[in-house]
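Margin note: ligand = manganese (II) ion.
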Amino acid sequence: MRILVTNDDGIFAEGLEQLATALATIADVVVMAPDREQSASSHSLTLNRPLRIKRVREHWYAVDGTPTDCVNLGIQGLLKESPPDLVVSGINYGLNLGGDVTYSGTVSAAFEASLHHLPGVAFSQEISEETSFPASAELARDIVCVLSEGGLPKDLLLNVNFPAAQPKGIEWTRLGKRTYRQTVVEKLDPKGRKYYWIAGSPEWQEESGTDYQALRSGFITMTPLHLDLTDYAGLESSASLRQKLASLDLAFPAASSV
Ligand code: MN
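Resulting structure:
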C-alpha cells in the first residue's frame, strides 16, 4: 500500500511527523505538505502562480501551496507513475468538527483525494495538556490498517477526531452544528487605524449522534462525508418554488437597433 500524507499545519508540524512515521510501519509513505501553516485554507487551489516542490528528506517534500495543491502535485505529479492507494491528512493541531470541515485544509485534502477517485482520511486532534500526538498517530495507523483490510473503497471519505484524553471508544457520527459563529473583534492599531480579528470560541448544539457530542464524551469520532452537496430533500420539497420559477419569462430582451 502506498499512502500520500499531507496536512495543513505545515511540513514541520508534530502531528504530521508522528502520523507519517507511524504509517511508514505499514505502508510506503510519501509526504507532501505545505511549507508553512495553511490552516483554514479550505479547499483552495493555487492557479495564479507556479508551485515549487522542495525535497526535505527521503520521501518528504514541501510545497509552497495549500493542502489541495499538495494532493494534486502528489497524485498528478510526483507519484504519477505509482499513484497512492490512499491519501491521509493530519494529524491536525485542533479539532475539525461539524461545519468547520468546510474551513479545514486538513479535511479538504481528503476531499481532494475523493475528487481524484481515491480514498481519503483526515485526522484531527483535540488539544489539552493530555494531548499525545504519538499515541494518536499509533491509533491512526491501526485505524488505517483496519480500513484497508480487504481493500479500500474508492469512495471512502472519512473525518476522524481524537479526544485529548485516552479515548473511551470509537463512535460513528454525523456533523454537529454550532449555535453561533465566530465573533469579529475590532481594535485600533498603533497608527489609530481599525483592524479586525476573527476570534472567539464556538458554542455547539447539544445533540446526540453528532461528532461534537461524541468527542465531548471522550470518544474518537468517525464521520463519513461525501462531496455531493445536493440537498435531495430540497429537490423533493421545492414544488411551489418550481411553479413560481416556471412562470418567469426567460426570453432574452430584443436587441436594440443602433
Ligand atoms: Mn491546521
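The chain has one domain: 2-176+206-229.
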